[in-house]
């Protein structure tokens, strides 16, 4: 595998942006691609520093794109930059212009932890025609509750009014309902440790997706909000993705 640290100019963010990219060695493109998103306190280096994602991706022959989005909750922020537009529109186009990545839906996936789990689900449910599968690990599935109860300071910068989140384009529950019955629905994977502070939010989202009969794989086991858990589960995600050679 090749690990590239990439700094580039983002017209959307109006800054020099950063991403880490893992590319398979000895494999011709266009490559299947996983957009792997970081959590609230992390950056584009966190997945490589804290897990063995490079080794796991090498086993699967998949490219991995890891962008930096600061504490944006993958949103076009009220007080801040347009990180949702960056991740959902500009980043894939730029990454494909720099590297031999496939544009095909069946070759594109997203995953993330905590805030990044929310971002990955948001990508898949907002653009079901672009992603074949998305995965959330210990995801921040209910941003309305978090805006009110947990991260109120951050959310003031992100959203104009937390009371406007339910049913909006930022609400995973509303987005899940919007894809019910769609011709193209990505495979969904959700995992959360039973001792995680986000566990109850994950259970509510799981049950809601099941009520809508969405294609959700849900797994839980003892665990908290920590890298040992996410290292184990990202390997499981790569086994679960609909890649050639995977059985599940």
Automatic annotation (TrEMBL):
InterPro entries to which the protein is assigned, alphabetical: AB_hydrolase_fold, Esterase-like, Mycobacterial_A85_antigen
Q: What keyword terms does UniProt attach to this protein? A: Hydrolase
Q: Name the Pfam families on file.
A: Esterase
Q: Which GO terms describe its molecular function?
A: acyltransferase activity, transferring groups other than amino-acyl groups; hydrolase activity
Source domain of life: Bacteria
Return the protein name.
Answer: S-formylglutathione hydrolase FrmB
From which organism does this entry originate? Answer: Cohnella lupini
